[in-house]
Description:
mainly alpha; Amino acid/polyamine transporter I
Amino acid sequence: MTKVMNRFTLIWVASAFGISIRNLPIFAKTGMNMIFFAVVAVIIFYIPIALVSAELATGWPKMGGVVIWVKEAFGKKWGFVAIWFQWIYMNIAVIAMLYFISGTFAYVFAPGLLENKVYLISMTLFIIWLFTYFNLKGLKLSSKISMSFFLIGILLPAVLIIFLGFHYYLTSDNSFLVLSFKKDAILPNFSDFSSLVILVGFMRAFGGVEGSAVHANSVDNPKKNYPIAIGIVVLLCFSINVLGALCVSFVVKENDISLIGGVMQSFTFYLSRFNLVWVVPFLGFLVGIGQIGGFSTWIGGPVKGLLESAKEGELPEFFQKVNKNGAPKNLMIIQAIIISITSTLFLFTGTSVNMAFWISVALAMMIYFSMYVLMLLSCIYLRYKMPDVVRAFKIPFKNFGAWVVCVLGILAMIFGFIMALIPPSQLPQENKVGYILTLLGFIFVVYLIPFIIHKLKKPSWLKKL
């Protein structure tokens, strides 16, 4: 008998994909504009992706997610391209996570190392290979352990910084940010196009909901409970990201906010007011542990989807091998090498640590936007190709509703992709040409590789069972 997930459990599972305090410094860089950016990101990005992934997950609940959905719509070739994009996204996206983890530990134990590239590289390499080793050994986090990491390393610090921040704001007159809900304060400068680029960072903060959608078919009464749960998650993610970022802005000047150390900068200030600076190392440890738990989960996730595609003959036998623990050993080692190289290259492109962090965010999202376009197109196409497949949850208002949601999402992805090519005005304006060429160069290689692999595909890659 299939186990049924209740609404409460689904809320926490979905929240783990959309809530992370490492996003707070990016939000804080925009001041009161963060409210505008967060609302726009939810409407044009988060909600369309949540609705589409729920429909696809309940119609095609087989393990694999996006690779299954795109394959059903457009065939194995495009299914492989979709999972390739998701896997490469993970390889790039975890770099920002690694910088944040390394920066958090540095700020706590040796603040002087926060901008030290040698330290950041050494620490990220250590984490990459240590947790690749753990995953190869089959030491996977159980759902209970994952929940604990989320609660103590993400939710608890988030609630604490919000409490401390608003206590400070209400009892002090020295806030760097004044809360104002007037139109001039909330709306960004639309005449400066580069000021809108930071929206990509907000879209990133709400990304990953398709991961929780695979549970939609296990929810009791999904037609009712799934949208309610996702609605609650949207409000929770929005509230924690915005309120937490405001609390960073209260005590750190916009130009001084470190994208990898901003959270700990804020905690240090707030706790020093209560003579509790000694708590900062403990909090930093919890924050770092919370992010490490997420990193370990991510590096063991999309690679499994790539393994399934490989077993269908999309990759040579070398990439199909698993060890005695069932882990895709060769793929995971290659994955660790890719993350190691790219995380090092970003820091040695002649940019600041903040810009290196942003490049990893922008590149990851350009790849993720590409995957989402394939997913959104699949939803529309499958409405016509396989109309009789039972979907426990369907986007409301029949095909018209599906078209509206998917087209809105696709336009958002195209807009986000273009925006990512422009250096944001909230960060130091360095070598703009080098920035654009770096992103385009990486994107060109990422796009080219799956088509080269498909061109070289041989019948022998598909094992006879």
